[in-house]
Design a protein that fits this description.
Blueprint (H helix, E strand, L loop, with lengths): L24 H11 L6 E5 L2 E5 L4 E7 L2 E6 L3 E4 L3 H7 L5 E5 L2 E4 L3 E5 L6 E5 L4 E4 L1 H11 L2
Antiparallel strand pairs: 1-2, 3-4, 3-7, 4-5, 6-7, 8-9, 9-10
Length: 146
Amino acid sequence: MQIEIKLDSLYAEPKILILADKMTEEIHEIVKKLSEETPQMLCGFRDDTLEILDQADVIQVYAATGKVFAITDHSEYSLRLRLYELEERLDKKCFVRISNSEIINLRKVKSFDLSLVGTICVKLTNGKVTYVSRRYVAKIKQVLGI
């Protein structure tokens, strides 16, 4: 594959043109990558203050007592979105659902313990331990490539 970049002041917005003799899997992958939406903004409440959260700082998102919370290295925030809405907003390369009530950031995982039968123990970088529910074990193994 050849890549050519032309800088021209006539183009205020980048334009991508792919020239090929036929549609290939490689071209499909390139189009798919370029078409992916950037992750949306995430806002959390702490002590009656709204803060914009960087997705890279979020360790886990969970639902408890009818509310949804996000944990970062610094604090815990209350969110006004449901888990299924967050699952759509969060970066799919980093975040994965591990149960009906929890989503974790794979980049904030210290280790996975596969020794338990039927589930996976997840140790997070903040020292907390959580578990993948049986329903999501196959999905996690697929994501991890095992």
